[in-house]
Amino acid sequence: MRRISKSLLAALFAAALPALAAAEEGRAIDLDIAPVSWELAPGLRTEAWAYGGSVPGTPIVARVGERLTIRATNRLKERTNIHWHGLVVPNAQDGPGVVIEPGETFTYSFAAPEAGTYWYHPHYRPVLDQLDRGLAAPFIVLSPEDGRYTGDLVLLLDDWYLDARGRRLEGAAPGAMERFGNLETVNGKTGAAIEPLRLVSGGLYKLRFISASTASVHTLRVSGHVFRITHLDGHPLAEPYESESLTLAPGERVDAELAAVGKPGSSFAIESDRPELGIRIPLIYGGAAQAPLRSPFVPARAGADPKLLARAPDHVLRVASAAEPAPSADMGMMAMPGMDMAGSGRWLINGAAYPDTKPLVVPVGVPVKLRIFNDDPADDAEHRMDHPMHVHGAVFQVLAVNGSPLPVPLSKDTVPVPAGGFVDVAIVMAEAGTWMFHCHVIDHEDGGMLTVIQAR
Ligand code: C2O
Ligand code: CU
């Protein structure tokens, strides 16, 4: 057993994923959950909370089927736990059901179920404060073809709401219902402190984008190159596609291939549509060139059951903001010590806020069709936004958006339900138990846009 050192961490972010995995195979992992003074840029520090002393936290890299023993020690002054976002692990290991008291250690143990780009973060409610302070980290399960890229890079996107000296501002910006940051980071760094991607002409790179933002949506555009999107939320597409930009809602991941078509010595960038908040990733070409590499990507086999598409939904869910402010009694109950009241709204599923939402009772092992509406006419139009709905213990098969069937269904664990629209998804619960289903805008999740699936 060993801890992943800082230098290994740096190596990981500098394109050494397969090597790290080989070195760490079969390991037990110790994760300290503790405050850290984190340098976002030279001269700009913030008091963050971190997994393993870095922001983002210690990346976990595993092979499919590899057993992991993760000993998480809580060195915060409050309770926490860890959710393995996107990984379908046994119910007792999923996270929300665990409480790690201050000073205590909990040992998670499971086998990495499926190759892909995942991440982990706290799930102890209210979640916003802990996730927003920097508790988020990549969880990569390697497939054999990943090792054939020139480089395999993780880019975890996040946003921070800070004053000019890096001190955390409370709540949400004036007029906002959600905690949107005023500074954005890639792998814990902002602006010129962001590590450039150093490319070799002719190389083919795998870029794994993860959004750990609690409310902000990231749109990134690349100059002089094109992204070839191969995976969404860790799952290979049946039909990869090319695009100059990509968008991530809170909790989503996008894997893209980047063919290094630039000349030696040239430079380009991946830029955010909000460049003033600090995300600009330089692409810098070194001197040598190599013969162009062919993509090792293996597309998924397409295949949804056409009967699922035609069938009526088993459950219909309507997500909405509450038109009325929460009654004061309720607010008293919600205003627990340490709770960040950012947004302080109430967010509903079928008219109720968790814990008053009605559980979805579903059978284990058979497809269940859900229709999720985001079109409540009572919803204040100004507050209307996409809700990225996330499920634990299953993967959505996204069948249709606004009634239009997708040409090929998508496998996703976080599905943005468009403002004013609806989506049809199918899930197959792998194991009996209580599993969470919620909006990944964490203000909404903490505000009640959460229900549980009781799989039986
Ligand atoms: Cu990433 Cu239930 O959360
Ligand atoms: Cu939401």
Residue windows where pLDDT falls under 50 for at least 5 positions:
1-25, 326-343
The span between the termini is: 37 Å
Largest β sheet strand count, sense and barrel closure: 6 strands, mixed
**Helical/strand content category:** mainly beta
- What share of the residues does DSSP label as strand, in percent? 35-45%
List each distinct ligand once: CU-O-CU linkage, copper (II) ion
Model description:
This protein has 456 residues and is mainly beta. Helix content is 8%, strand content 42%. It is built from six helices and 30 strands. The chain has a six-stranded mixed beta sheet, with no helix packed on it. The chain has a six-stranded mixed beta sheet with strand order 21-20-23-28-25-26. A hairpin with a 2-residue loop joins strand 1 and strand 2. The chain binds CU-O-CU linkage and copper (II) ion (CU).
What is this structure's SSE topology?
Blueprint: H1 6-13, H2 17-24, E1 28-41, E2 44-51, E3 60-63, E4 67-74, E5 83-85, E6 105-111, E7 116-121, H3 128-132, E8 137-142, E9 151-160, E10 183-186, E11 197-201, E12 204-211, E13 218-222, E14 227-232, E15 235-243, E16 245-248, E17 253-259, E18 267-272, E19 280-289, H4 306-310, E20 315-321, H5 328-334, E21 347-349, E22 360-362, E23 368-373, E24 387-391, E25 396-401, E26 404-412, E27 414-417, E28 422-427, E29 433-439, H6 442-446, E30 450-455
Parallel strand pairs: 1-4, 3-8, 9-12, 11-19, 20-23, 22-30
Antiparallel strand pairs: 1-2, 4-6, 5-7, 7-8, 9-10, 12-17, 13-16, 13-18, 14-15, 14-17, 18-19, 20-21, 23-28, 24-27, 24-29, 25-26, 25-28, 29-30
The structure holds CU-O-CU linkage (C2O) and copper (II) ion.
Residues 83, 85, 121, 123, 251, 390, 392, 436, 438, 440 line the site of CU-O-CU linkage (C2O).
